[in-house]
Structure formats: C-alpha cells, structure tokens
Design a protein that fits this description.
Blueprint lengths: L8 H6 L16 E2 L10 E7 L5 E7 L4 E9 L2 E2 L3 E2 L8 E6 L5 E6 L12 E3 L2 E3 L5 E8 L2 E2 L3 E2 L11 E5 L5 E7 L4 E7 L1 E2 L2 E2 L3 E2 L10 E6 L5 E6 L8 E8 L2 E2 L3 E2 L12 E5 L5 E6 L13 H10 L6 E6 L7
Length: about 325
C-alpha cells in the first residue's frame, strides 16, 4: 500500500464536502465525490456521467473482481449503487460516456469470441494472465442499454486495450502498450464514415520508457487530461495538454495541490459540464485530534471510504482552461 503524505487541516476539511448538485463547478481544491456512496470502502474509479448529470456509471474493484455500477441523482442525493445491466460477470472497468449520451464504451477481460476465455495481456514488461482488456460498446435504447458488442480489431489489436475516451465526432482515445518495455501510451482513432481509422499515437508522450495513461479528452478535443509516470519521484500524476491550432501543446503537471506526490492519481473523466475533472486517488484525509476531526468521525470516515484505497475526487478545471 502506498504511504500517503500529510495534508493541511483546511484541505482535510474541504475534502469532506459533498457534491452540491449534478454538473456543478467546484473550487480548485479537490474534494471527494459522494463519500460513503460512490466513493466507498473498495477501489472506486472512472465515473461516466449522462449528459444531464443525473446518472453515473463507475468502477468498483478489488484484486479479484471489477464491476461497473450505476447510481442516480434523486431527491438531492446519489442512490445506492447497483450493478449495471451489462456488467457483473467479467472483469469490467473504465466506462466512458459518449458526449451525447447515446452510447457507452468500457474495457473488459471478457472473451473476444463466444467460446473463448478471459483475455490475457502483456504490458509493463510482464505477462498479465486473465486480466487483459478489450473495448466494448453498449447503446442506449428505449428499454435501457443494449447487449455489449466488441469494437473492431483495428481498435482491439491486442489484449491490453484500456481507458477509452470519446470525442464529440466519435473519435476514440485509449491506451495500449508499445515499445520494448511495453509501457502504455495514448492513441487516437479517428471516426470517419461510420468506421474507425487506424489509431495513431497522440504526440504528448515522454518516451517509450515512460507510461502515459487514462486520457480524458474534451468533446471538441481542445484539451486532454491524463496520468503519467514521467515525474518519477511523484509516482503517477495528473497532466493537462491543450490544443494549439492543430497541434498538441506541451503537457503541464497539474500541481501538488491537485496531484500530490505518491497519491496514485489515475482514470480521469470529465463531468457533464466538461469543466469539472473527476479522477481516482489513494490520498487520505488526515483525521484525529491533531486535525480537528474528532476520533469518532474519523473512524466513520475510515469505515465508509477514507481507508487508503482509490476514491473518486473532483476539481474544477476553470483555472486551467482560461484563454
């Protein structure tokens, strides 16, 4: 388990705030999202919101199971999550919503063929038996969500395709391992005439030996947030890059206030306003007498979510998106 750095008392108190309303823009200090409901006692990651902000799909996982759950905003609160209709059997994760809400893409180790077995993978220089991933799509229908169908081989060209993000024109961003060390890098497949073109690497990487993960692209592709190990002393940190004309600008570290060292910040997603960033982090909120949080409240937080596992956090991108 990663050791968490101490945080100021003001940060600890800010992190207790609940989400005020679906799609609301937040202050620059990250806050935990729906503690005890969405952010719970297991690893919770990758929230995918419907355009109205009233439904969220997200991953809940431990070392042996990963499922996509769904919760709804009702009467001023998020409902108790339940297993999404298209998940629950295989190791499903990393749902992302099309900007218009008409379909959702997620990663899964489910067999690529009806008579196959759970996908194997090879990345970060090692075999990963049974925990691979391909990308699958479900479509919104009048009766709910369709059965999942696997994206074509031009996308799923190996067993380690993860972390989709969808632009408004249907173009798909995702990560896959490349190079001699099989580190993950971010790719884009343009969607044109009803089909995906051959994916090309997004030119923001820091070299084959450094992993870049989990893209969250704006619908108009004007900016992208992603995780990277390029700052070795910090572990996995959050970066943002903006389009400059037709080219991507230099990625910028989002700072220790947003992405503290060794907090393992991953699986970014944009909220329905496209200006609120959601991401998963193992950071802890310090509690106990020295923080001003009484022991009973600290224990309640620990039991519900504040236990060093991944929780979902949120922060406004307004200061990053100024002209």
């Amino acid at each position: 388990m990663i050791s968490m750095p101490a945080a100021p008392v003001c940060a600890a108190m800010a992190a207790l705030a609940l989400w005020a309303a679906p799609g609301a823009s937040q202050a620059a200090q990250p806050t935990v999202f729906a503690p005890g409901v969405i952010s719970g006692p297991a690893n919770d990651l990758s929230p995918a919101f419907t355009p109205d902000g009233k439904t969220v799909f997200f991953t809940r996982a431990n070392s042996s199971q990963s499922v996509i759950l769904v919760s709804h905003w009702s009467r001023g609160a998020w409902t108790t999550p339940s297993i999404a209709s298209f998940s629950g059997t295989w190791r499903d994760l990393e749902a992302t919503m099309a900007p218009d809400g008409s379909y959702l893409i997620f990663a899964s180790n489910r067999p690529a063929t009806p008579d196959g077995k759970a996908l194997d993978a090879y990345y970060n220089g090692a075999a990963q038996p049974g925990v691979g991933g391909n990308l699958w799509r479900v479509d919104r229908t009048p009766n709910g969500w369709s059965a999942p169908h696997r994206l074509p081989d031009v996308i799923n060209d190996n067993g380690a395709i993860f972390s989709p993000s969808i632009a408004a024109d249907g173009s798909l961003y995702f990560m896959k391992p490349v190079g001699a060390q099989t580190r993950f890098h971010i790719f884009r497949a343009r969607f044109s005439n009803g089909a995906y073109e051959t994916p090309v690497a997004v030119p923001i990487d820091a070299g084959d030996s450094v992993g870049d993960y989990d893209p969250a692209v704006a619908p108009d592709e004007s900016f992208i947030v992603f995780s990277s190990a390029r700052m070795k002393a910090n572990g996995t940190s959050l970066f943002i890059a903006r389009k400059q004309g037709a080219a991507w600008g230099r990625p910028v570290f989002m700072g220790a206030a947003v992405s503290p060292p060794q907090s393992n910040d991953i699986e970014s997603r944009l909220g329905p306003d496209h200006r609120t960033l959601y991401f998963s982090s193992r950071r802890e909120v310090p509690s106990g007498a020295q923080t001003g949080i009484r022991p009973e409240k600290g224990l309640e937080m620990m039991d519900a979510w504040n236990n060093g596992l991944a929780n979902i956090w949120q922060v406004s991108l307004d200061s990053w998106l100024k002209p």
